[in-house]
Amino acid sequence: MGDWVENSTKKGWLTAIFELGAWFGCLYSGFLAEILSRKYAILVNVAIFVVGVVIQCVTAVGGSSCIIAGRFITGLAIGAISVNVPNYNAEVAPPEVRGSLVALQQLAITAGIMVSFWIDYGTNHIGGTGPTQSDAAWLVPLCLQLIPGIALGIGMVFMPFSPRWLVHHGREAEARKVLSSLRDLDQEHPLIELEFLEIKAQSVFEKRSTAEKWPHLVALTPMNTFKLQFVAIGSLFTTKAMFRRVIVAVLTMFFQQFTGINGVLYYAPSIFEALGTSSNTTSLLATGIVGVAMFLATIPAVLYIDKLGRKPVMLAGALGMGTCHMIIAVIFAKNEQAWAAGQHKAAGWAAVAMVWLFVVHFGYSWGPCAWVLISEVWPLSNRAYGISLGASSNWMSNFIVGQIAPDMLEHITYGTFIFFGMMTFGGAVFLWFYVPETKRLTLEEMDIVFGSVGVARADSQRMRDINREIGLDDTLRDLGVGDDNNRSDSSGDEKLGGSKGKIEELERKN
Predict the structure, then answer these.
(1) 101: how many CB neighbours lie within 10 A of its CB?
(2) N or C: which terminus of the chain carries fewer CB neighbours within 10 A?
């Protein structure tokens, strides 16, 4: 790879081109999932991913242009899959385990990062760790990407279509059959009827919301679907109250990335080498511990986030991460010359320990909580587009950090940690003064916080009308489950409303 790993600017592009591809993938993910189905969209992106990996794997004979092109192509696939897979999971999973699946997904991501670090550590020994090292040391990790990609593709072949997508496209009989198979219940079972009607209510709600705002885009044609993605996101900028939500979503994801987390994850071996570790092998070993630390730190977050709230946990994480950055900067500034002379190794390991503590603070706070936060600030009719906007901000910020981090580490050394430390403290200030606590707030209460009173109430009234129209209220009364007159939005978010609460109550009665 020559200059592409020795020149800091080119190294940044080599890393960040993946995130740039992921940003584009995030943009087309919703369109592809709507016109092809969630299942086929995932399969298409798996195929794109495999093509990208194969192109990377011929880098040894094709040159550096192959790995650049391959990483951009795999980025396209991962950006889209990072949106499509969670949506598919949420739409096929029983309502009572959807929250657990979100937590499991976050754990799976950190577990994958951890495994990848240890694979890098192991393959680093192929052919030796010195000048005799084989190209296989970096080619094998590239090739191993095919295993999870192909496994996902094979698994999806045997998975059903999303019931929600089927209902939305008028294939209701097939949706009932899929729900029956997924829940292992007869199609006539009351749980199947209840969940089917909840899905239908949500679909009708979305269609009527679209018809009210953009009547010329009601027909589910590919061109209308494509236009709707941009028109709907553009509408988020048209009122002051909605724009405040945009600021929360976009800047929360901006500050999540500008904590420097992916600068640390992408360039951890280089960082640890700069902090005075004795060899590349030792740096990779320290990097492996980064993966373990973040994985373990994520576990309490997914267990206690609903008890502690989002804002306090994220504030604690930001203060912890910012403090770690500053301590690393001080240690770096005092010992940089000594490390170059092979001295003060203990100080280097103290800085390494601060990096480990930094990823722990990220793992329990901004890692999982930022995604939860940006999903909760939107009215029901705008939620899908608002989350997409936040995800787009995340990938673009990720791209910028990946691009600038190598040059910063080379040219301003310890100043890199001061920069990310100040950005992290800035994120804490933004969180403290501008972002509301979203734990247990109804959508109507969120309207009051953001100054858009009436939006959620109108959504709720429309949903109540739909529930009566399609017979959902009658079904609930016949089943003797709760009093549906006080349901706030049927979004599934409130503790006492939505399909999750109703179905869980019915299961308890049965």
Answers:
(1) 16
(2) C
